[in-house]
Design a protein that fits this description.
This protein has five helices and seven strands, in the order E-H-H-E-E-H-E-H-E-H-E-E. A seven-stranded mixed β-sheet has the order 1-2-3-4-5-7-6. Helix 1 packs across helix 2.
Length: about 180
């Protein structure tokens, strides 16, 4: 994959199985490290809705999806009602075969540029509170910890501890 140009495509419904494959790989890797993040299945209906709305984005290499992210303009369930313009990151995943290649960092930079183009003031995301490596990664990318909250899993089956992070777009190399 050309390290200079990251091509991100809007995913279609046909990409949902491959997106589930990325999430499944991440789930297994997280479980092997004792991290509870993504241990509840992401329903296909959620990913289909993301694709149908034009909110699911993918990176392909040799015809295979190697990274994905879902973007939205609001997340009142996790962040509460907030009128400040922000882009919310969900389901950011990188294929296990591409771990360590800075693809996640590059995809976050793409998100920041896209958010700036959309007039957002910040990029927001959340992750499992018990995932210190991911939390450190986000902090290294310029995100600041806002607070911890309890969220309901996508299937509604249980409550999860989640840490909220935000990066203002006027900081660093992400947009103006």
């Amino acid at each position: 994959m050309n390290r200079e140009v990251l091509v991100v495509d809007c995913a279609g419904v046909a990409d949902v199985p491959a997106a589930q494959g990325l999430i499944d790989g991440a789930r297994q890797w997280l479980r092997s490290r004792g991290i509870d993040q993504w241990q509840d299945a992401v329903p296909d209906a959620v990913l289909r809705r993301d694709a149908e709305r034009g909110d699911l984005f993918v990176v392909r290499q040799d015809g295979m999806i190697v990274a994905m992210v879902t973007l939205s303009d609001s997340d009142s369930e996790t962040w509460g009602v907030d009128s400040s313009p922000a882009v919310y990151v969900h389901r950011l995943a990188v294929a296990q075969t591409h771990r360590g290649g800075r693809l996640g960092q590059r995809l976050l930079a793409w998100v920041g540029a896209r958010a700036a183009e959309r007039g957002a003031a910040s990029v927001r995301l959340d992750c499992a509170t018990d995932n210190p490596d991911l939390r450190r990664f986000y902090e290294q990318q310029g995100f600041r910890h806002v607070r911890d909250v309890t969220v309901t899993s996508l299937d509604g089956g249980r409550k999860l501890a989640s840490s909220l992070y935000e990066r203002e777009l006027g900081l660093g190399p992400w947009g103006a």
